[in-house]
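[Meeting: bench + compute handoff]

Bench side (C.D.) handed over the final construct sequence. Compute side (W.E.) agreed to return the predicted structure before the next meeting so the bench team could plan truncations. Sequence as handed over:
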Amino acid sequence: MTSSPPATSDTQTTATATGRAAHEGSASPLVSIFVPCMNEEVVVGEFVDWCWQGLKDAGVDGEVILIDSSTDRSPEIASARGARIVRVPKRGLGRAYIDGIPEIRGKYVIVGDCDLTYDFRELAPFVAKLNEGYDFVMGTRMKGRIDDGAMPKMHRYFGTPVTTWMLNRIYRTPFSDIHCGMRGITLDALKRLDLQSQSWEYASEMIIKSAHMGFKSGEVPIHFLKDREGRVSHLKRGGFWTFLAPWYAGWITLRAMFTFGADYFLFKPGMVLLALGLLLTLPLSFGPIQIGRIGFFLHWMLLGLAISVLGMQMVLMGIVAKVLYDYQGQTTVKWLRRFDYDRAMITSVALLALGGIFGSPLVGVYVRHGYALPPELGWVTYLAVTGLLFAIASFLFFSFTLLLHATESVKKRRN
């Protein structure tokens, strides 16, 4: 290994030497600091020194892994300070993490940025939480310290609080800063997450899947620092499009949030719509109803039919979403039991038969009038609308049952 450049202090020199010894002498370190790097030669050397200092202060053996796609001297500088370099093509931040996971040797993994905005000298709180049995530990800038000028006001007072509130509502999580990049996670949990996101949205995917999988999660306050003088952030390197980057990041975060939480937007809202639709449809099955000065007649019933169908579709699609994102298996078992194939098929046939029975009187009237419109809309017309609802429900139950069991079959093959 090449000799280390002079560190900025005796403490950093000692930390680097200690870190190198741990890196070279431990085949299974407790902690792996696992960070992407792209063209950070201005700060990466000091960052690695901070990592060794943090490991020393936490009293643990560890390693520093940089997933690197640099075109400058970053890998050489980091390697000289004792980091292990994993070279990957430039394919997005999330993909860098995915590519580097096989290289991790530690039981615990600390992730973040190597730009000196996260203080990796303060690793002890993360290690302590993980030692307590937590699977996933988020850093939080909102409950820690934020240097003046470190975070734009739009991010600090609008973007981060709003998107954090939304994610907490959807996934019932307790976090205060979902965009904090400094996080701790067990290697086992990281592998189980099976991250797929290629870009910035990997951060939201990590949180969302941890909630879906029932991880024991916690937070620790961190110190968020201002960009080091002389370093140009990746955000500003984007040139003319720099001003759009925060909005794009927010957009793809929301995309991940909505995609992985599809059941939140489908199942419960669908239940409400279904109940409202049935309330408008079923009581009118035998004719109009007058309640005070308000009359409910065929037009209300047709509105109820439309709302019922929409609600039913949302509920059933919501169940499919629940099964798709069921990483524990319990939700899938529950819905497969409720929609047992044989029982669901019998229910579909029964609903179709009921629809035919309810619609047959209208067909009879239509035939008796020589296939012309009857002189007035009688009870048979209202009953036929209810029959139409049952016939639609029959088709939806049939197609949903096939899709549900097909989804489970595909999941089994992939596992």
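W.E. noted at the follow-up: The chain has 14 helices and nine strands. C.D. will use this when planning the next construct.
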